[in-house]
Amino acid sequence: MSDLETLERETLAKIAAAETIAALEDARVAALGKKGVVSERMKALGQLAPEERKAAGAALNVLKDKIAAAIDAKKQKLEDAALDERLATEKIDVTLPIAPSPRGRIHPVTQAMEEIVAIFSAMGFDVAEGPDIEDDFHNFTALNFPPDHPAREMHDTFFFNEKEDGGRMLLRTHTSPVQIRTMMTRKPPIRIIIPGRTFRCDSDQTHTPMFHQVEGLVIDRETHMGHLKGTLEAFCKAYFEIDSVKTRFRPHFFPFTEPSAEMDIGYERVGPKDSGEIRIGQGAKWMEILGSGMVHPNVLRNCGLDPDEYQGFAFGMGIDRLAMLKYGIPDLRDFFAADARWIEHYGFDPLDMPNLATGLSR
Asked: Is the pTM higher than 0.90?
């Protein structure tokens, strides 16, 4: 009997000394496990005489119940202590000031550019890029600009200093040089759009020295003005998020396309003349929105393509102006004024990525 009392005292001491659930489990296994001291003594009962076995069995069962009860009590105590510690470390001080929400916004030009890319990507166009600094060949000559064209003069183009050979690099005046580079390095069929920065000596309410353009180019064996018109009308409906759009194509002249046309869209102004809302797709007024045409045979030849085998169309439009029309921005110069209040008002949530499934400008 004294032996069981010693075993009880030692086992309960181990249970009381356990500081973690893992240590308590070790104490339980040492006492009540398959090879624990109490379990081993229970196995040895069969070797005793019947009367001794009955008394020893009853005493071991009492000990087993005491140990189990002590383990349960200690386990509950350890779990309560762990919960108290967790509550103490994870509590929230409701008196602390609320952290300000992120203030970063997507610029309307970036938003418009991503919307345009989403629309044309769905039509099967690839996105092409090129350098901002160009040479005369890619910016003018390959695009069928004659040597005396006004665009080559200093009043319209930003030229760098002359090189030793007399040539001058320049800031590209359009993204059309990327069309040239693509046609010279890729075999048709070609279907690309080219968004990017362009530069011209001009500055007023609707013009800035640096602005953004997107151009499109399609080259294939069977491409005509009907394809051009359908592509641009589909784009306008998707970009302005309207069911229908009125368009007209007026004859125009561009050195790099023949025939050439400017595209107008129908609109109406609601409210004051200078600050009223412009509604695209309805009304009796017309607004020029882009230039387009069939790629000139000379341009194809300059790029090493046979105009008797290949033909295609091209178009170009100002991204900044498209953003102004869609989002009601009155002055182009504000795009580059770095005014935090302006971007707070006109900017877009960075997490709302434009896509045709859920809407371009949510």
From this structure: no
